[in-house]
Amino acid sequence: MSVSERNSKEEEEFKNKMQRLKLNDQKMTYLQLFGYQLGVQKMQALSDALKVNQTLTHLEISLNRIGDKVIEALSEALKVNQSITNLILSYNLIGANGIEALNESLKENQTITKLNLYEKLEWKKRECKLYLNL
């Protein structure tokens, strides 16, 4: 399979998953987007789906190299989503602004009980303080 065929297949799988989320597919309680290279456009599609979804309980978006701008889009969705209980954002490029956006969303979201940001060995002092306040 060529790289373009694989990318096309991954794009189709992503669109299918977003559609299932929007339709509140009862069988879709766990979504793992591991290494999907999520950019702003895909994260916006995910955020839009999460705003209406009521079935997803576990969301893993690890190893995607997503940074603060992308996390800010996700954080907006987390303010209204009331089904996710477990959020895993390991091995991304989340900085202080992303942590701050997550912190703000968790003030409104009372359903997330587990948040995994395992990734950073070299966070700056501000990022550590923000993380400890989550």
From TrEMBL:
According to its UniProt record, what is one Pfam family this protein matches? LRR_6
Q: List membrane-spanning regions.
A: none
The source's superkingdom equals Eukaryota
Protein name per UniProt: Leucine rich repeat family protein
Q: Please spell out the taxonomic lineage of the organism that makes this protein.
A: Eukaryota, Metamonada, Anaeramoebidae, Anaeramoeba
